[in-house]
Amino acid sequence: xxxxxxxxxxxxxxxxxxxxxxxxxxxxxxxxxxxxxxxxxxxxxxxxxxxxxxxxxxxxxxxxxxxxxxxxxxxxxxxxxxxxxxxxxxxxxxxxxxxxxxxxxxxxxxxxxxxxxxxxxxxxxxxxxxxxxxxxxxxxxxxxxxxx
Length: 148
Ligand code: 5GP
Ligand code: ZN
Prior knowledge:
The chain is an alpha+beta fold. It has three helices and five strands; from the N terminus they run αβββαββα. The chain has a single domain (6-105, 113-129), classed as HIT family, subunit A (2-Layer Sandwich). β1 (19-22) and β2 (26-30) form a beta hairpin. The chain is globular.
């Protein structure tokens, strides 16, 4: 755990967050200044700054968690961006690796210039929809159940 890292504090549950998913290596929670409704962050629990520092043994866990959260977000919309800002010039503000999953709802709609804080009532509603009791979402028809 890195000192003064907000995502390490969330991973250790020392700081609050609307946690949607957790397993041994990964965690997902709602972004506190969402770019759109349901904006979710997926992190490795262990502190690393960059994707290139992720131990290969955790590639599966990381992509599995991102994929699982994408599947849950598809309850909101099948349109979303998945991305990483890596380095300050690329827009990275929190230097603990995180994947953004940013739902998109309307064609041509730009991200807001001024980001509003997560609405507590909506966060509670989204948590109910997306956390699925902390377990895995049931597989969709025609898809294999996730392993592990
Ligand atoms: P970056 O620009 O580093 O890729 O994105 C950092 C993201 O973390 C931003 O979208 C920001 O709103 C979010 N964020 C920053 N601090 C906190 C926090 O304390 N809690 C949560 N849930 N999200 C945070
Ligand atoms: Zn950290």
